[in-house]
Each structure stands twice: as C-alpha cells, then as structure tokens.
Design goal:
- Chain B: Residues 854-864, 886-910 have a biased composition (Low complexity).
- Chain B: Component of the SPT4-SPT5 complex. Interacts with RNA polymerase II.
- Chain B: Residues 835-844 have a biased composition (Polar residues).
- The complex is a heterodimer of chains A (122) and B (1096).
- Chain A is an alpha+beta fold.
- Chain A has a single domain, classed as Herpes Virus-1 (2-Layer Sandwich).
- Chain A contains five helices and five strands, in the order E-E-H-H-H-E-E-H-E-H.
- Chain A is globular, with a radius of gyration of 13 Å.
- With 1096 residues, chain B is of the alpha+beta class.
- Chain B has seven domains: 2-145, no CATH class; 150-247, NusG, N-terminal domain (Alpha-Beta Plaits, 2-Layer Sandwich), CATH 3.30.70; 260-383, no CATH class; 408-464, SH3 type barrels, CATH 2.30.30.30; 523-637, no CATH class; 674-781, SH3 type barrels (Roll); 786-922 and 955-1031, no CATH class.
- Chain B has an eight-stranded antiparallel sheet with strand order 8-9-10-11-7-6-5-12.
- In chain B, helix 22 packs across helix 24.
- The N and C termini of chain B lie far apart (147 Å).
- The chains are: A alpha+beta (122), B alpha+beta (1096).
C-alpha cells in the first residue's frame, strides 16, 4: 500500500490526547492532525494546521479502537464504512457530530451524513 | 505491491498473447506492446497506491469506475480517453470470450490511461500526479459507502471471521495498537501479518477481536505480543454475533445545562456541581459549585506559585470546608493582589468566582453523572446568595426534582398512589396498575375520568401523599423514619416524625405509606435494642429504645439515661451469666420469671448483672419500653425447669463428690465436676517412657491420663498413670495407691490406705475411682475367690449390653431420684422404683413384670447360677439385699433370665470378686458398682458401661447375698428356722413350677461336693416336704411387726447372723433390734432379712 495514504499511528495507546475524527473516525494524536490533517476527509474538514478546527472536528470521546490493516478486504472496515479509507486506527464509536458547515457541505454534495455515534439504525 | 505489479504484467502479457492470435492488427499490437512496456515502466515509476486502489475497485464495482474516473481523471484527458476507449473496446471485443466483462473494462481503462500518459511528458505526468495526490489538495471525500444501509453490510460467509483473543485486562488498546504497528513493520517481510483488522471495545475488558481467515493467522499475529494469552483460546465469533460486537453501546450519559453532577476526584471529590455549559464536542463541562478555599494557608505572606502548590498538596489531607467565595475574607487572608476582579467575576488562583461560586471547566470523564442524588441541603446551598440571603426566598426544587425524577421512576410500585404533575393529564391522580419501563398505567380517581386507565410517562407522575397519611422514609438519611404527613408541597412532603417529634421534609419519591410506627432499625452502630451496655465502670444498663443516633438506657439503679453511642464503653454479654433466684434456682437469661414481692411484675430475663441485678422485659409494661430492673433474689421462676431441685432429686448428681471424675462414661451432659483427684499435687516420678526418671507434680488427672508438671524444664506433659510412681520425700517410689491404674490384672496393689476403713466416712469413695474406669488392683487381691464362675456372668454381661433393669437391680430406692423414664415397675409394691430408674431405653421386660410369665423367664438363669455353686448359699440369701428389693422383685425380674442367655463368657472377674467378698471391709461392692467398674476398664466386653457409674447410690453399703447363703456358717444355728421362698422355677420349669412362690422352712441343708447341685429339704407351709435346688431358694422377708428375723448380711459384720425383732412395719429398710438389747436399733435392708419360723 502506499505509505502516503496511511494514517499516523500514535505511539502511545493510552494517551489521553488521542482524538477521533468525527467524520471518518480515524484516531490520531492532535499533533498528527495538525501536521497532516485527516488522511481521509481532510478535503472537507480542513484541519491541517488549524488547532481550533481540530478541536471541533475531532473528539477524545470515542469508544473502541480498531486497527484496520487491510481496509479493502476487512469486513470490520466495511461495517464501519472505512474500507475505502487509509489503513490505520479507527474508533468503533465516536460521540458527537461534525460541525455544521461540514454537514452542509456533505448535504450539498448529496452525501448522506452518518454520525459515528451509532445512533441511526438502518 | 510487487505482487500486484506482477499480476498486472501477467495480465498484460496474457492480453498480448491473445492479441497475437489475431493477425488483423499485428502491427498495431507490436506498437502497443512496445508502448505498454514503456508505459508500465512509467507507471511503476510514478504509480501511487491510489491508482492501484482505484484499479482494484474497478474489479469490485463497475459503477464505481465512473465515479472514480470522474474524480480522478482531469478534464483535458477525457476526450482522448474516450477516443481510445472506443478503439480499445472494439479491439478487445474480439477476445471477450477470453476475458470477462470486468476484465475487459479494466483493460479498457488501463489502455486509455496508457494512451493518455503516453502523450504526456514524464514531467507533465509527475506534475499531474503531485497536483492530484500531494500537497493540500486532499482526496475528495466521497462518502460513497454512506448510502448503503447498515443491514446490507452484515457479514457473509465470504468474509473473514472474527476471533476472540484473551488479553490482559487493561492492555486491550495497547495490543490493538501493537498489532497495527506490527502489521506495518512486517508488511514487506517474508511473513506479513495476514490479519485484516483487530479491535477492542471498552465494555469488553480482557479481550480483543481479530479479523482473519484462520485462527492460525491470529495466533501468528499475536505471537510475541506481551499481554496476549493465545493459550487461553482463540475463539471464533459466530457470524451472527459479529455485528453486535461493534454495535455495543454504552448507556449514553448526557449532561445538559442545569443538571447536577458530582466531581469524581481532587479537592472537590464528591462535591455537587451544577452544569452551566458544555462545549460543542461534549468533552468539557462548565460547572458551578461551592469552592473550598483554604483560609488558613500554612505560609503567610506572599508566596510564589510553586511554593503555594506545595502547601496545597501538603494540606491535601485536610481539605478546606465548603464555603462560598467571599472577597473580603480572601483578601484578608491571601492579600489583595491575589484576587483580581473583572466585571462581576473574581479571579483567584486562576479560578473564577462568581456570586460566591467557583466556575470551572471539567472534563466529562472527571465527573460522576449517574446516581448523583443531590440532597435537599446541598441544593439549598446552591440557591443561597453570596451574602447569605436566600435566593428568591424559595428553594427551587424543580432542579432537584428533575435530577431525581429518574430515580423516582424506579421507586414506583403498583398500588402506589400517584398524581400527574405535568402534561395533559396534570392534576389527575390515581393508583398505579402497571409499570412498563417508562410507562405507567394508572387507574384514575375522581374527576370525570374516574376509573379509567390512563397511560402516562413515568416521569410525569409522582407519589401522592396527603396530610394525615402515615408514611415511612425508604431511602436517604432519614431512612426508616416514620411519621404523619403534615403538609405536601409539590414533591416535598413534610411529616412529623414519630420518633423525634420533629418535622422532616423529604421527597415524596422516598416515601411509602406505612402502618408501622417507629424506627425500623433497632441497631445503631454496634449496639442493638436490649443490649446490655457498660456505661462506666460502675454502671451498666440495658438499651430499651433506640433513637436516631442515641439510645435510652435503663441502668442497674433504675435510672433512665439518654446515651450517645460513643458514651458506651462496651457491650456486655450475659448469655452465660447465672444468677440465683429467690428459691435458689439458677436464673439465666430468657427465663420467664416473676417478682415475688413488690409489684409482682412478670417478665423475661434480658440480662443479669453481677448475679444480683436482673433486667427483665415485659411487653405489657409501657414504661421504659417494657424493660425494668430488679434484684435476682426477688424473682421466682414462672416455669419450673428440668434442672430445678425437686424432692427426691438424685443426690448423687448434686454431690460432686459422688460423680465419677470422668464425665464421659455417664453420657449425661449434666455431670458435675469430679472431686479433686487425690493424686493431684503428688510428687511423682516417671518410671516408663521417654520421660523416665523425671520428677514432677501431678497437676491434673483425667481418668488414666495425668498431667504432670515436670520439675525440669517447667513443662507439663500428659502421661498415663501407670507410668508414674509416687515419690515419697525419702526418695522411695510408691505405687499411686488406689488410684486405679488401668490394669485389670487385679493382682497388684496393696490395698493399704484404700481399705474400707480409709473411706468409711464416705462409703462411696470407691465410686469415683471405679467410675474412672479403673479397678484398683487392690480389689482383686482381696476378692479374687469367685465362687460363681461362669454361671452367673452371662446375665450380667447381657445386662451390660442392654439397659437391663436388672443391672440396676441391686439398686435401692435412691435410684428413683435419677429416674428418667417412667418407671414401669412403679405399680409393683415390692419393687423399688429404682429398678428401672436408670434404664434409658425401654425395658424389654417391662411388660412381663408382675405376671406369671416372669418366672418362666427367670428359669433360664437359674441353672447358670447354680452351676456357679450357688446352691449352698441358700440360707443366706434372704439377707442379701444386694439383689434387689426382695423375693417379690426377683420373681418379676424377667430381665435376669432373658438376658442371661446371649453372652456367656463375658464374665467379669471383677464382678464376681466384688460381689462375692463376704467379710470384706469393702462395703460398697454392689453388683452394680462392680459391674460398672468392670465395664469401665477391664476385660468385660460390655459395650454400654455408660450407664453404670450413674448406678452409684448412697446406699451402696448393702452387701450382696451369696448364692450359697443357705450354707453360711453364720446362719447354721438358725438354719432350721429360716423361711425361704421358691423363686424362679417357672422359668426353667423346675418341678413344673409347682412350687413357685411357696414358702417353707429349711428342714435340712447340707453342702454337697461342688460337682453336684446343691439342694435343701424344704418343709413347705402347705405341709409337703421336698428337696429343692438352693438356687431357687430365696429368703422370705419378714412381714410382720415384732416378728423375728435373721440378719443375713449387714454392713456391720457383727450383726450378720443375729436374730432381730422387726421394729417397724416392714419396708425396704427395716429398723430392727436384737432381742437381747432392744435399745440397740439398727437398720437392715429388707432383702437382707429372712423371716424366721418359731423355734420348734
């Protein structure tokens, strides 16, 4: 796989700072979000270099960690709808919703927003 | 990566091969081949993962191809691409039997791209790529998977499986991270990880889940990771459970502004706080709560931050009390420059204070959101203004009500009276019928919908009470308080406590209607109602009432005290205390007694104190909760108890001196303590065993075991008595005399100080020792001659096995006292009740008593006796009281005969020797006595010696009658006059039993040689003369006052053979006097007297 597409793997699993992206649920350290943005949805979230944006678009309030090693073939990744994302660490469940502007943009593009807090069932 | 490249090259080559088949475009093909090779190189040079990925996706979804193309191919390329596509399509169509549709499209796409890139310079391509994938321009977020409903993502059989792996709890996340890192590390190694994903859930501690095709791949992946326990099994997760593992959802803890939380840790741990605001992502919560500012900082004066921090931690153990922020106070203590003021907000030590409260942001994880249960007090504090005035006068309970509403739902029960306080039905009240989680169905009462069932959300109803209801508090700090409702304001109910007579306000949710009065608990701290407690060194008392946190105690002087738990020094226990009541009976707790003087109050003894005071309890007495104190000496038992003294109590039981020292033999629990063993205190020397030669002092004895305190080593050891010798002051070793070494030899032991003389003062003195299971050797020596041999023993032995009344037959009326079973012989005049007295099992012969059948059974025994050489003894028999109460009793004593059969050979020498010793100074050797002795330690096989020691009786002075009494030389002068009675013939059918019971005088009795049955010629009263075997002859007891009788046996040997006059109406013990000296009256047992005919 292309190295450039992989997420930064935090060195400290216990770190309290670990943050999960509200849109794609990838888990990274804030410093990585700031340096590289979100490897999956940076286009929408625009977190790179923007600490405030990181604070609003990611959260420490998540539950369960998935290490997605082979996103395309993994059922877990498919279930989590991360199979087209880079491999890396993802949260099973992320509390919170993306900021409104992101939600509006998704709406504009006709993309259904699925919060990662497992509130919707279909 | 390499794999894929290879794959693609292979595919291209394959394509080439098929192309070769068609000659049509051979040239073209060659060109393409060259191109494609060139292109391949170019692609390899610049290829990105994304490209490959895209290609991959083509394989998966035809539709997505277009999406991808749109997204990734720039506009300017498109036209060319289309052109190429067209051509390529046409070309490949010819080989579509080889390639599948997807493959064809793939090739088309590949082809088009090759075409495009072919037309660009490498520089252009590089630029293009970097524009496309590098830099700011990120991958466009498509969210194309978001449209698929979740249910369609359910795992199928084609998906890899999930495997559960056990890990060290707490390390789950680390291991998932490690797996990720490991996967990256070994990706290009020879053995890349074959797992697809791994995850962990916080709610599933101790396990992670790994997605892989086989468990082997899982264990390979986990190999080498610390904290993974593959040995505990890698378990397959069933396919239907896979999705639910990812769907586990923690109960969402939501905080809303205004809700109440508690702070989890730190200086404010446990403090209630109110949520003011929440950050957008829900992580930080702005709280308002009462500060705890240290108003006594350890170091006065200005402090730098570091130092202050230090002191803060140092005083961390003592956290300052909650107190609203007061500007003046703070600057007084801390100085003005520590506090700054901005608008209405004070800033002190980096915290902001507003209206006296501290306002601070906390992480959500640092807060307790569940079970906050704010109390009324806490809430009230929040409503207070900084200046101490009540905010808006009234406590706004809606806040707390909201917080507690959740809890309120759970306390609702069917049957509760509720009212609706919000919603459309507000104001309706009714009774709860059903509860379905958050929905309650109530039956409305009153108004127009009376009787209808209404479905309501549980949160909008609350328990309803009205003034006058009697309620009980179920939870909270007032729990178990009961009282009468005086007012109801919304959900706050005020009631008058039954206990403290104070008004208590509680939430209605915490209340239930209850009929009971008073505190449900009688326990405060370690003390309980009716406990005897020590108040001070002189005073004890009984708790008769418990209050909220105090007791009412009645002390031994009758005074009532209000006592706090800390004023009680200890709880006393009088369970084992025994006092004596007015009648001298023992008084224990729980006895029902009454006062014999004063108010004659009755009650149950709760406690006794110092055997003098008794605390009684009687529910009928209102005063002091029914507890009162009296003196034990003024009490009498209401219900006589079994252990009370009654007339005729077995004195042997009461007198410890009579009880054998070993309680175990008797088997009755109420054995007293044995007398102090005479050996205790003796200086002894060990003569055997490892301690041989040691000298010590006997400290205690227990049967044959002795505890000896050695002179050397200050050691107490347990030894057997026969290993000891008394060490006299002169160094001589002497046998421990008379103190029953357990040897049954009967050969040793000088009866020196053991003789009757030594013990005459206590005729039973021998008893204890025998009871101890040891026959003293001394006895045997004195008594060895055993004229009876086998003949008699069977019976004895038999009786020893069963509770044969005969075994106790020799017993005198004293037995009666210890009788524990109804005496079946009581009706027999001649018999002493004692007979059965000690029989603890039903007497098998009881039914035959007094009937004709008895003599029949008797017969069986007789020959045995005779064989033993009894016959010659006939004349003496009547005097032998040891056999029972008399001739009558013999005839009825079926036990003898019946039991004689089963166990011959169990003859105890001890028995015989003891019973037989005429003329011995040992007075106490009654059959029972000796028997007991034998049973305890000798070669008697009797298994039930237990009952034997209890057969001792004060009257043990009786002497046994020799079977050959008739031939006793002492009676020779009167032999012709002795009145005898035939007894026991029916049992053996001797002479058809015709002579049974007949009396007559002995005409002639001469002892024949031992081989022959002894017989005597009897002239019966009926006029017949007949020779009768002596063993059937018993002395006929005297029947009339002033008649003459012969003393067959007496404790005073001098009296034996004397002719006496009956002085009183014959009873069991008959006072007699000799004719020569009427003033010398002594008592003889009836059994030992034989009536005399007038001298012929």
């Amino acid at each position: 796989m292309a190295e450039q597409g992989a997420a930064a793997i935090p060195s400290q699993a216990r770190s309290k700072q670990l943050r999960a992206c509200l849109l794609c649920s990838i888990i990274q350290l804030p410093v990585d979000f700031r340096r590289n943005g979100c490897p999956n949805c940076e286009e929408l979230m625009q977190m790179k270099g923007n600490s405030d944006r990181i604070a609003t678009c990611t959260t420490t309030y998540f539950d369960g960690v998935i290490s997605v090693i082979d996103p395309e073939n993994s059922w877990v990744a498919r279930w989590q709808r991360t199979s087209k994302y880079v491999r890396g660490l993802y949260a099973v469940r992320v509390k919170g919703r993306v900021p409104e502007d992101v939600e509006a943009e998704l709406d504009n593009r006709g993309i259904k927003y699925r919060p990662r807090d497992q509130t919707d069932h279909d | 990566m390499q794999k894929k490249r290879k794959k693609r090259r292979k595919r291209i080559l394959k394509m080439m091969r098929t192309m070769k088949k068609t000659k049509k475009r051979k040239k073209n093909l060659q060109v393409r081949k060259a191109r494609s090779e060139q292109r391949c190189a170019a692609i390899h040079k610049h290829s990105t993962c994304h490209k490959l990925w895209r290609q991959h996706r083509h394989k998966r979804s035809i539709a997505s191809r277009f999406v991808d193309l749109e997204a990734e191919v720039s506009d300017e390329d498109e036209e060319e691409e289309e052109d190429e596509d067209y051509g390529a399509d046409g070309f490949i169509e010819t080989v579509d039997d080889v390639e599948d549709d997807g493959g064809r499209r793939h090739h088309a796409a590949l082809d088009s791209r090759l075409q495009v890139e072919e037309d660009q310079t490498p520089e252009q391509i590089a630029r293009d790529l970097s524009r496309r994938y590098g830099g700011r321009a990120a991958v466009r977020y498509t969210g194309d998977m978001n449209e698929i409903p979740q249910r369609l993502l359910m795992p199928s059989v084609h998906d890899a499986s999930l495997w559960q792996v056990r890990v060290r709890p707490g390390r789950e996340r680390d291991i998932v991270f490690s797996l990720m890192r490991k996967a990256i590390d070994v990706e290009y190694s020879a053995r890349p990880l074959n797992i697809l994903a791994a995850f962990q859930r916080d709610s599933l501690p101790g396990m992670i889940y790994v997605e892989a095709r086989s468990s082997q791949q899982v264990s390979q992946a986990c190999n080498g990771l610390v904290g993974v326990f593959p040995s505990r099994g890698i378990q397959l997760v069933p396919i239907e459970e896979m999705a639910s593992l990812l769907q586990i959802k923690k109960q969402d803890l939501t905080v809303t502004p205004g809700s109440w939380v508690r702070i989890r840790r730190g200086k404010y741990a446990g403090d209630l706080a109110q949520v003011m605001d929440i950050t957008e992502n829900g992580e930080d919560v702005g709280l308002k709560f009462i500060p705890r500012i240290d108003l006594n900082p350890r170091d006065d004066g200005p402090l730098d931050g570091r130092k202050r921090k230090k002191t803060a931690t140092a005083t961390g153990t003592m956290r300052p009390p909650q107190r609203l922020f007061n500007y003046e106070e703070i600057i007084k203590v801390w100085g003005r420059k520590h506090v700054s003021k901005r608008n209405q907000v004070f800033v002190f030590q980096n915290d902001t204070y507003k209206d006296g409260f501290i306002e601070k942001d906390f992480k959500l994880s640092a807060l307790i959101l569940e079970d906050v249960n704010p109390t009324l007090d806490e809430i009230t504090q929040f409503t207070r203004r900084q200046d101490g005035a009540e905010a808006d006068g009234v406590v706004d309970l809606s806040i707390i009500a909201e917080a507690s509403r959740k809890a309120a739902i759970s306390v609702l029960q069917p049957g509760d009276h509720v009212e609706v306080f919000e919603g459309e039905q507000a104001g309706v009240h009714g009774v709860v019928d059903e509860i379905h989680q958050d929905v309650v169905i109530i039956t409305a009462i009153g108004v127009d919908i009376d009787g209808q069932k209404v479905e309501l959300p549980a949160r909008s109803v609350r328990k309803r009470f009205k003034p006058g209801d009697h309620v009980k508090v179920m939870t909270g700090q007032n729990a178990d308080e009961t009282g009468l409702v005086v007012s109801v304001a919304d959900n706050v109910v005020t009631f008058l406590s039954d206990m403290s007579m104070q008004e208590v306000s509680v939430f209605s949710k915490d209340l239930r209607e209850a009929a009971e009065v008073g505190s449900g608990t009688n326990i405060i701290g370690n003390y309980e109602l009716h406990d005897l407690v020590q108040l001070d060194a002189q005073t004890v008392g009984v708790i008769y009432k418990t209050e909220r946190d105090s007791f009412r105690v009645l002390d031994q002087n009758g005074q009532v005290r209000l006592v706090q738990p800390h004023q009680i020094s200890m709880r006393r226990d009088s369970v084992r205390a025994i006092a004596t009541d007015s009648e001298g009976h023992e008084l224990r707790i729980n006895d029902n007694v009454k006062e014999i003087d004063g108010e004659a109050r009755k009650g149950r003894v709760l406690h006794t104190h110092q055997s003098f005071f008794a605390f009684l309890h009687n529910r009928d007495i209102v005063e002091n909760g029914g507890v009162f104190v009296t003196r034990t000496r003024s009490l009498a038992s209401l219900a006589p108890k079994g252990n009370l003294l009654k007339a005729g109590t077995d004195l042997s039981k009461m007198n410890p001196a009579l009880a054998p020292p070993t309680g175990g033999m008797v088997g009755s629990g109420n054995m007293g303590r044995g007398p102090r063993d005479r050996d205790i205190g003796l200086t002894v020397c060990v003569i055997k065993g490892p301690h041989k030669g040691y000298v010590g002092t006997i400290k205690d004895t227990n049967g044959p075991a002795v505890r000896v305190e050695l002179r050397t080593g200050n050691k107490v050891i347990t030894l057997e008595k026969d290993k000891l010798r008394e060490r006299l002051p002169n160094g001589k070793l002497v046998q421990l005399t008379g103190r029953g070494s357990s040897s049954g030899s009967g050969s040793m032991g000088p009866p020196t100080n053991y003789g009757g003389g030594a013990r005459t003062s206590n005729p039973y003195a021998g008893g204890p020792q025998n009871g101890a299971g040891s026959r003293t050797p001394g006895w045997g020596a004195g008594r060895t001659p055993n004229p009876y041999g086998e003949g008699r023993t069977p019976a004895w032995n038999a009786s020893s096995r069963t509770p044969n009344p005969y075994a106790e037959g020799g017993k005198t009326p004293a037995w009666n006292a210890s009788s524990r079973t109804p005496n079946p012989y009581a009706a027999d005049g001649g018999r002493t009740p004692a007979w059965n007295a000690n029989s603890r099992t039903p007497n098998p012969y009881a039914s035959g008593s007094g009937s004709g059948g008895t003599s029949a059974t008797w017969g069986g025994a007789t020959p045995g006796r005779n064989v033993g050489g009894w016959g010659g003894a006939t004349p003496g028999r009547p005097a032998a009281s040891g056999w029972g109460s008399g001739v009558d009793s013999w005839s009825d004593n079926t036990g003898w005969g019946a039991s004689s059969a089963p166990t011959p050979g169990a003859a105890t020498p001890g028995f015989n020797s003891a019973t037989m010793t005429p003329g011995t100074t040992w007075p106490a050797s009654t059959p029972g006595y000796v028997f007991g002795a034998g049973g305890n330690g000798n070669n008697l096989s009797a298994p039930t010696p237990g009952g034997i020691p209890s057969t001792y009786r004060p009257e043990a002075d009786d002497i046994d009658l020799d079977d050959m009494w008739i031939f006793d030389s002492a009676f020779a002068n009167y032999q012709q006059r002795i009145k005898v009675q035939v007894h026991g013939t029916r049992v053996s059918n001797y002479l058809n039993g015709d002579f049974e019971g007949k009396t007559g005088r002995i005409k002639a009795a001469t002892k024949s040689s031992a081989e022959f049955d002894q017989s005597a010629l009897i002239a019966f009263d009926s006029g017949e003369e007949r020779s009768i075997l002596v063993r059937y002859l018993l002395p006929a007891p005297p029947e009339f006052l002033h008649s003459e009788a012969l003393v067959l046996a007496h404790k005073d040997e001098k009296n034996k053979g004397k002719v006496v006059i009956i002085r009183e109406v014959p009873d069991d013990i008959i006072p007699v006097s000799t004719m020569s000296d009427p003033s010398f009256v002594f008592e003889v047992k009836r059994d030992f007297l034989a009536a005399l005919y007038k001298d012929q």
